[in-house]
Amino acid sequence: MGPESRGAATPPIPAAPRFRLMGDRSFLVELGEVIAPDINRRVQQLMQRLQQARLPGVVELAPGYRSLLVVFDPLRIAPGDLKARVLEAAARPDPLNALPAKRITVPVFYGGEYGPDLEAVADEVGLAPEEVIRLHTEPIYRVYMIGFTPGYPYMGELPEALAVPRRSTPRTRVPKGSVGIAQRQTGIYPVESPGGWHIIGWTPLELFDPTRRMPALVEMGDQVKFEAVRAVET
What pTM was estimated for this model as a whole? Predict the structure, then answer.
């Protein structure tokens, strides 16, 4: 049977949402078992639908890689009613590719004082530092979620060849703008803070500015491309 006679591949049926109680005022809506772009898009879509619904009693929506935390006031909405509304929102057939997104290029100064862990990462994965830089700048990363500190983007997926565990001893001070990696993730520290990821570079971009209309430069669902530069721009 030739390729022209084959039917189109049937897309996998999304898993039904699972609810995990997180006390008497919140529950976690799990939409999948693994970290994957399609699952994360469903999380983003569900969050946007619930935001648009403006359900009484919903206090906060906090998205993760594959789940959405729903915080609510049980005196204003019954948990059973809220779960029914969540299931209704999750079942709507709106296309995932309609979600808003922007692409941002991030200039990075790799190695030396800007990336103190670059050499150690290269040794651990058995590559030259230049190859680590090439692999890190190759993908277009998805911003899976924002967390840890205001504006901190968790992005993936890092090439498997660069997957290293978190540092055994976290730093008490990681400079603002530091670019780090851990496991299959990469991220940028928007403010000076402690941190346990391997720092391989630094960017001058301002990722978080509370005076801007949109304080965070990137949001869940955005695309990020890293670009290696050689000297600090003055």
Answer: 0.84
